[in-house]
C-alpha cells in the first residue's frame, strides 16, 4: 500500500537515513525498533512526506506520493508525531473530531467512529472534558483517537511515532489491541515506532530494526526479533524466554557495553 524504493535522507547529520526499500502491506501492523537517534522519527517523516527524500521515491497505492495534494494525501494516510501541540480549550470530543476533516464524513458516521474509539481507548468518561485539563497519558490517548478517526474509509496507511510513550501498561495493551483490530478488520497498513520489545513481539506482524541511520533488518516478527540481533542493535545483552502462550519475553539484566 505504501512503498519506499531506494529512499534516503542525507540533509543534516542529525536526520540522516541511508537508502532503504520498504513495503507496508494492508492488514498488517509493522513495528519499528531501534536505539535513540537511530532514525526512527526520520523514517516516519520520510514515509509521510513531511520530510523530502534526497534519493528514491515513495508510492502510495501505486502513485507517487508527491502527486497527491495535501488533502488527497490526508484521505489515504494519517500520521501521529511524537509532539502534538494543542493550546486551545477544546473538548476531548472536538479534538478527536478534528481528525475527520479531510474525510467529509456524515455526522452519524463520525459519531460512530468517535464512540468506537472512545470505548477502545478508555476515553468515554473524558469526551466532555477540557483537553487542556488532561494528564499526559489522557491527552496522548485523545490524540491517538484523533489520528485514528482520520483513517480512510477505504484501506489507508497509518503512521504512528511512539504513540504509547505516555500510556500506562493497561492502556498500552488496550491501544495496541484496538490498532491491530482496525488493521486486520479494515485492511489498513500500520507502521508504529515502539520502544518496548515485548509489546512489539506480541502485537507486530512484521518488525523493522533501525540502527545508526540505517535500516538494519526487516521481516516477520519471529524471524527478526532474535536475541543476538537485538543485542547487537541495542548494545546490551538481551535474552528471550518462552511464555505459556508461545510468545517470547525479552529481558536484559546486564549493564550496557562499555
From TrEMBL:
Q: Any idea where the ABC transporter domain is?
A: 2-237
Q: Which SMART domains match?
A: AAA
Keywords, A to Z? ATP-binding, Nucleotide-binding, Translocase, Transport
An example of a GO molecular function for this protein is: ATP binding
For this protein, the record's CDD domains field holds: ABC_Iron-Siderophores_B12_Hemin (cd03214)
The record, for Pfam families, names: ABC_tran
UniProt KW S-adenosyl-L-methionine keyword = no
Recorded hits in PROSITE patterns, A to Z, give:
ABC_TRANSPORTER_1, ABC_TRANSPORTER_2
Write out the function statement from the record. Part of the ABC transporter complex HmuTUV involved in hemin import. Responsible for energy coupling to the transport system.
Name this polypeptide is given:
ABC-type hemin transport system, ATPase component
- Identify the species of origin: Marinobacterium lacunae
